[in-house]
Amino acid sequence: MAFDPAVFPRCDQTPVWEGLARHYESEGKDFDLRQAFARDARRFEDFSLDAPHVFCDLSKNLLGRDTRAMLTELAQACGLPAQRDALLGGETVNLTEQRQVMHWLLRYPAQQAAFTPPAFDARRAELAEVHATLEAMLAYAERIRADEGITDVVNIGIGGSDLGPQMAVAALQSFADPARRRMHFVSNVDGHELDAVLRGLRPERTLFLVASKTFTTIETMTNARSARDWFATQGGTDVARHFAALTTNIDAAREFGIETTFGFWDWVGGRYSLWSAIGLPIAIAVGTTRFRELLGGAHAMDAHFATAPLEANLPVQLALLDLWYRNFHGFGSRSIAPYHSSLKRLPAYLQQLEMESNGKRVDRQGQPVSFATSPVLWGEPGTNGQHAYFQMLHQGTDVTPVEFIAVREAAHRLPGHHEQLLANVLAQAQALMQGREDAGGHRHFTGNRPSTFLLLERLDPASLGALIALQEHRVFCSGALWGINSFDQWGVELGKVLARDLTPRLASGDVSGLDGSTAGLLKRLR
Ligand SMILES: O=P(O)(O)OC[C@H]1O[C@](O)(CO)[C@@H](O)[C@@H]1O
Q: TM spans, by residue (predicted)?
């Protein structure tokens, strides 16, 4: 169905936007967290939200009741509920590529769904295909899991065909059996990465998964060709058993010589694809039941997003807060601090999710926007980050909102560790807010530095699925408020074109027509 962006005012075209600007000048910019807690004994309760598998404490943010109400009004004024319904109704919301955006359908169960999206009868055929592909992929994952001859699985893919599965496999490592099977991820065209992995492998014990939505991405095709050559020169036989492709371009995979293929659809964006065949490494690592739990957790969050009122809708409220910080406070980045070492790849995953989705300077009609869009996302697991860059978070000149992610129950039994970890995450959020007076200067902490606290009961497939779906919907909401297309990525194209031109020049030395710097560097690099 046609999606008409002109129906939805951009945030800056609504009267609420002006009101928010005035409100920021009169109160917002001087908001003091310490005073807010002193004034309001119920602040924690009133600024916390419970969503499926995720509890969120928003109370340590620079946000009062008035601000929250005005922001929620902004969401209404931008038609956010109708934009969400367009997404879930299968409208062509990705206008520049003329595509629907339906990653949420990949986790929609065959039975007992928690919500019914708009115009859902039109989705039945696609849903049947989703489930047929899922069944085939999970059956294959179980065959690999049962095959004692396969000890190493190498996923070759980049961007969304790498970051999602890599992040999830690491996050769910306590549900996998590393003694039985090692999972490797090769993404970079830098041969050092593939070479280091290949050195530890034997062809007859290895399964290569070539993961690429388009099956044209230069890095992935270069790595896949090198892996295939290595397999042959090491005496590997039976490519059919040792290579599989995860792609929407089945013909290209066959032409490459891969018979075992698992498909998906153009309505799945790369950075939203871990729920599709791109999730095969996750299914191999943790098995069918766990993979279905991952989908189930995401579906529960989809239902929350689709049905919760705006004030209680966690993705919506996070996106509104993000907008408040980015467009009014002018904060340029958000630091992601997962206090769980298994979430070590989460910051990298979220970087692609948010920055590739919302790092845009024009709106859906191609008009430049006059406000800031995606913040920079960055981070490392706690407590490691505390001994690296938290100094800047506490005492630097920039204010950076921090998103803490903590997990109540540990998956190990080592005494004392988890209490220390939890004490540290609490202490960091507390220190950022409270600060400390010191006349001498060096030991002075200004405090009043905002943070959000996301809490999972335990890190399991369902909670991971919910956490990721939460972030996906939050990114969609920010994009919808800003009036941008969160689902294309034209910004990655120019570099690809230029690299194609420069590759043969590195061999030939031809620098004609190049700028002085590129020509000079190319000569030195030869
Ligand atoms: O899965 P593919 O088609 O190889 O693409 C990989 C990645 O490349 C991009 O197109 C751009 O870098 C990402 O959006 C995508 O996730």
A: none
